[in-house]
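Translate sequence into structure tokens.
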Amino acid sequence: MQKFKYDKDSLMTYIKDFNLDLGYQDDISILKEEVDLGDGYISPNRMAIHPLEGCDGHTDGSPSEFSLRRYKRFARGGAGLVWFEAIAICEESRANPRQLYITEQNKEVFKTFVDEIRKTRSEVSSKKQILIAQLTHSGRYSKPNGAASPICAYDNVELRESSGLPEDAFTYAADEYLDSLPDMFAKTALLLKEAGFDGVDIKACHGYLLGELLSAYEREGKYGGSFENRVKLLMTSFKKVKEACGDNFILTVRLNLYDSYLKTENNPGWGGNVDKMDLTEPIKLIGMLKDMGMKVINITMGNPYHNPHINRPYNAGGYTPPEHPLVGLGRLIEGSAKVKQEYPDMIVVGTGYSWFRQCAPHVAANEIANNKTDIMGMGRVALAYPDFANDIINHNRMFSDKICLTCSLCTKIMRAGRFAGCPVRDQEVYLPILREVRKYG
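Result follows.
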């Protein structure tokens, strides 16, 4: 891949060469504006931290001192909205033995966790930071005991064959099992509300169970085939959570607009396929969720286990991507823009900015100024540079010597079963972990 120089002139040259609908705005003050999220909540600025799994909780599902350290860094960092990592709705739905999982038994630990984060925030700002928790069933990526225990919506041959697991390792969720999940989502959401969160996100992306059901064209029964059947579990879960948690509580979805899987004879793919993006069904689903009261949506694409260049374009990773990262970023940002165009009063949290490094606030400010998104969401950047928002607020810039390099080392140590973090910028904690992975695997 040709080395990219991270400045305005180089960026605009590449954007022109790839014929992308992206821009660069020198004035980034729009990122400092408040955003009304509805339900009585106002984010103090247009910057958010995306959900980032730390894989550092205790085995009972409660957050550890490493979890608290990470979120205290986010609390001090200045982003108006912190979207917490995936929290499992049941034991078998955990993606790893250290994934967060709230229960009646550890609810008070979570409450103390949230209180500590809010206290840390209050020490640096009088403006409330909005805290949203993500609810998940990991589906085919469930590993509650450390060994793969996939629970799939249907037999996706492409994903099965690329997994390296034997065919008999896969369990396929029966309708009766899926019937039980909305109540689990509702129960977990209520526990999180009682623990002090401002809202919850029902995760329907990245190949996890609710996201996978959206492409279950070939599944039989009431959760497969037609569009109405494929979105049924998400819609029912949304309804149940809303009933359980009531008003004055944010209810949202992190949604895959586009999976980018291979097209098969009977499965055209959710949001299209690897050959062509088609957002007809995702846009329709968002409208249905909006009619049920959803005011905020977090947009993403792809599957980090299978095609990470789609959902988090990188400079170094497990394979050489088939396209320049800017092409993938253009796709992600185009998706957010199409949602905003269709539903202008929906608050859209955009994705795909980390790769731009210090140019990120300028690209995001341009998108917001042109009504193509509302909030700049940062994922990997937050692990490397948790105070990116403070630097934008106080210095009108992000500093190149603090930025995420999109080198994928945070993913490398996480995939090796260790705690996730940035070995480059947060060396005290995570460089020894990287060295251990390199030495022992």
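Note: The chain has a mean pLDDT of 96.
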